[in-house]
Structures are given as structure tokens and as C-alpha cells.
Amino acid sequence: MKLQALTIFLLAFVASTHAAISPEVYWKVKLPNTQIPKVIKDFLPQSDNVVPELKQDNTKEKVYYGLSGYIAISWHHAANSAYERLVLEKVNPIKQVTEGIDDSPLKQYFLLEKDLEKGNVINFPSLLNKNEAPFLPRKFAESIPFSMEKFPEILNHFSIDSKSKDAQAIEKTIKLCEEPEVKHKEKRICVASLESMVDFGLSVLGTNDILAITSEVQGETQNSQRYTIEQVQQIADGDNMVCHKLNYPYALHYCHVGGSTKTFMVSMIGDDGTKVKAVSVCHKDTSFWNPNSFPFKLLKVKPGTTPICHFVQDDQIVFVPSK
């Protein structure tokens, strides 16, 4: 009862004052039973009035990049969407996708629920992503323009050459964020602050009793290799929210809820000894996905026939209602 009373008091305090609080305190007030994942905590500013140091003017790149690009964000967009074109450009030559689907490296990112069994051996790439973009306090993030309409202004804000790799990355990210929602069973948003991420999670999951989980990798291997599944634990069955960190000058996440899912924690060990605790999201209803999207071609199944699963990289966060 004391904890509940304290939480109510803090919520009232935050709502009724303009006192500057840190994003970490905001999380603790809004999600009192949820630990902040390390992949978030390591990149938080210490105060709502302190802006973390972004990349300096003398660096070649102003955008923070993950190692693996955009792999598995959403596969139920319209055919030939900006996101699907982005994946083709970033991960796989078009010729390989259309002529040699079985050889595609993307195949390693998708599997069927029946494959998540102890003792199974699967080929799998590293889950390391290492996008080190820092979070901005909400009021600073919201003061920076974010739209294709303001694209020149954004480049000017970060002193980025319009012909550079960074400019191309920013353009792709904004276009992904501005794609219209799929009307059937999808809710999504790109959030530029931790506070906005928390608020969206509360609105779509309908509870503040939430688990926030991430994949964990012990080792630095970047190569695909064989992994043996040692344990599979079901964490949740129902809606979840997944937030994917995007390539941008500060921490920007694509957060979405895309229909009913099962969420698993899968413990694996690689042939080289790398230990992985991987979060796997299995989409139970794929009937509304684009029938021409990669997972169906890669796994040779049809929409709505069987759950399709994918692992999330270590800088992506999965939010599920707590049991």
C-alpha cells in the first residue's frame, strides 16, 4: 500500500508541476514495476535539462548506425513499400532475392514456431547491433524538426551535407516513419524520446504492469554460425510492443504493435561458445501481411497458415504485459 500511495503521489506531482525530471525518473514513475533495460539506461541523459553530447562537427558521420541495418521491423506494409526497398538496398541484392531466395541472408532472421525447440540447431547471424545513439530529453527532441517537408532544415540543424551517406540514412528513416499505418491490426509510431516510448506503450498495452526485455549476447562475434537451443521459455501470449532503434543522429525508435503474438526467451550457445539469450517474437496472425513479403517466400508458407517468428537484436526492446 505504501508503494502504491507513493506512486500515486509521484504521478500527481509530475502531472501538476513543470519540474524538470530525468527520463529515468519518468520511467520509474510511469512503470514502477519495470526495470529499465541496460540498452536504454546506458544512453540516457541525466536530467531533462541536460542534452547529451552528440557527435562533434569534426567527425565524418553525424548519424549513429547499427551494425545490421534494418532487418525485421514490419512485413505487413504495402507491396514495394519504402521499408521493403530499404531492406533490399541495405541487406540483399535484388537479383539474389528474386532469383535465389534460398541463399538469402535474410532467411536466417525468420523461422517457424515449431523450430523453437530445445536441442534444435539453427544457423543464425549475430544479434549485436551496437547503435550507440543517445536519448534526448523530450523537450529537446520535440524542438527538432522531423518530416520530409523539413528535410533541408534537419540537415542544416546537424550540419550534414545533402549528398552524404548520413543524409541518405536520415531520408530513409524519415520515410519509414512517415509511411501510413496498415489499418488492420497495426499501431505504430516513431518516438524521439524515452518519455514518448513509455507513453505509447501504456496507451497500446493498457497497463503499467509491464516487462521490458531485450536480447543479450555474451561475445563479440559478427559472423553467422550454428547455434544449439538450450532452453525455450514463453514470456507472454498476446499483444506486445517492439521498439527498433533506427539510424539517426540521436536515439529514434520505431515502436509498433502488430497483432497477437507469443514472446519467448531462447537460450542458445554457438559453435564458438558465444552464449545468447534471444527474445523471439512469433506473430500468430499473418493473414493481413503482404503475401509477397520476404517471410512467406523464405519459409515457403502462406499468410494466415502458421505463426512466423523472428529474433530481435540486442538494442531493440520488447514490452509485454507482466504475468
UniProtKB/TrEMBL annotation:
Source organism, top-level taxon: Eukaryota
Pfam families reported for this sequence: BURP
Signal peptide, first to last residue: 1-19
Entry keyword annotation includes Iron-sulfur: no
Entries under SMART domains matching the protein: BURP
UniProt keyword annotations, A-Z: Signal
Ranges for domain BURP: 110-322
PANTHER family: BURP DOMAIN PROTEIN USPL1-LIKE, BURP DOMAIN-CONTAINING PROTEIN 5-LIKE
Name under which the protein is recorded: BURP domain-containing protein
Native species: Anisodus acutangulus
